[in-house]
Amino acid sequence: MRRHWVVSLALVLLLFAAKLALEAAGEIVICNYEKFRLFDSMYRPRTDNFCVFNDVYLGADVKGADFLASSLDYKRVAFANSKFPQVPPSLFKNFDDIRELYVRRCSLETLRVTRLLERVYAGGNRIAAVQLDGNASNSLRELYLDGNRLQGLANLTHLPALEVLVLENNPLLGDVDFAQFARMERLWKLDLERVGMSRISNRLQRPLPELRRLDLSNNALTYVHVRMFRTFPALEHLWLHGNRLYYLEADQVRTLMPAVRSIVIDDNPWGCGHLAALGKALRDRGIVIRHGECRTERAVQRVCCSDETDVVDTRYLLELDIRRDGRFQQDVRELRADNEVLRRELERVRRQLGELVVNLTRPATAHLVEAVDGPPSSEQQNSAAASDEEYEEGSVE
Ligand SMILES: *[C@@H]1O[C@H](CO)[C@@H](O)[C@H](O)[C@H]1NC(C)=O
Ligand SMILES: *[C@@H]1O[C@H](CO)[C@@H](O)[C@H](O)[C@H]1NC(C)=O
Ligand SMILES: *[C@@H]1O[C@H](CO)[C@@H](O)[C@H](O)[C@H]1NC(C)=O
Predict the structure, then answer these.
(1) Using one digit for the tens of pLDDT, what is the confidence trace for 295-321?
(2) Nearest bound ligand to CA 127?
(3) Residue ID of nearest Cα to ligand 3 atom 4
(4) Where are the domains of the chain?
């Protein structure tokens, strides 16, 4: 009996020691260079050569694994059927030239974005924190973070090369101010579907000149003034379905959204009266209302609406009246802000103009000084002297 117990204990100890040895040595994981299928920014299937790691399972201590490949200069790395709370640091150490990283559905909790990464597919995880090396990236062009647990975008503002940002289905994100995207001057696609937004604000100081696709669907927006979109002069497609909208200023759409081609508006509590007017106004301006299928009886252009038109219309009229005061003050504030931006712009142009005048007179001086052949006319002498004076004043400054 006693002997049996000793043997069991020895066996347990032996197994434990073996496990320790294995962990200390570090598991070596090798990827397979293969054609990998994924979807691009327009949801088109795409196949490309990736080095693919399969079945990588790691616990909280992700440092145990060492990632290798037959060649370490692969630029695209993917994980399939894998699970770890963060991408093991040794991956970035061994593959120091990764440009594309595919880590969809890996149970990630934090995401690190290294300097050279250009595309990161990190949807379907549990990401609550994103860390950018150096708090910024000049390389990152496409970032997919759909289906995660982000609560804020504070770490995602310094991304000047970003073109595509997909934040769909991060229900903890909440209200968003478009000013958070101010530095993303090349952004053409912004997906904010199902992020738990109940109101949008826009304190952008400069327009986002490239933004063409904006998805705000399936949130809890009750009222969105089209003025909110005035900073997106290239906006072509806007998704607003699945909100709580019942009113939209159709008459201002064309002036505030000059490039808009389609607006998706179904699945909102429209009153049929307003919807009919809205639909006509948009169509008259060449804007397509895209719709789902309305299965209830009351619909305008296949967009569902409520038969209690009057009730709804009265409700928005009442609400507008109540808001009018606030709106007026908001208008004044926005005009003041715009005015301030214009004033600063003017100041900048004025300074540039001053510089330009100095620059223009400078070569003239050099030319005149060089042109010693022949007696200069008194007029030329005068202007040369004047320029010299200016030049000296300029260089003293
Ligand atoms: C933001 O970045 C910092 C520094 O990299 C990091 O410590 C923090 O966890 C990040 N926070 C979020 C919410 O992503
Ligand atoms: C990045 O931001 C965090 C706070 O978010 C800060 O503590 C850290 O010093 C910053 N790092 C760099 C390199 O700027
Ligand atoms: C004026 O010249 C300086 C130096 O040659 C140059 O840096 C600057 O951009 C010029 N300014 C303008 C407005 O052309």
Answers:
(1) 776 788 778 887 665 455 555 555 555
(2) 1
(3) 359
(4) 28-310, 311-344
Summarize pLDDT for 55-106 with one digit per residue, the tens. 988 888 777 678 877 776 689 999 999 999 999 888 888 888 899 999 999 9
| CA 98 – CA 120 distance, rounded (Å) | 10
* Residue 362 vs residues 184, 349, 369, 376: alpha-carbon distances, Å: 38, 20, 11, 18
Architecture of domain 28-310: Alpha-Beta Horseshoe (3.80)
Mutate to test the pocket of ligand 2, among 135, 137, 155, 156 (most ligand atoms within 8 A of CB): 135
Closest C-alpha to ligand 3, atom 5: 359
In angstroms, the CA 52 to CA 35 distance is: 9
**Pocket lining: 356 vs ligand 3, CB cutoff 6 Å:** yes
Could you say which ligand is closest to the alpha carbon of residue 395? Answer: 3
Helical pair 309-370 and 378-396, crossing angle rounded to 10 deg: 120
Q: For the whole prediction, is pTM greater than 0.70? A: yes
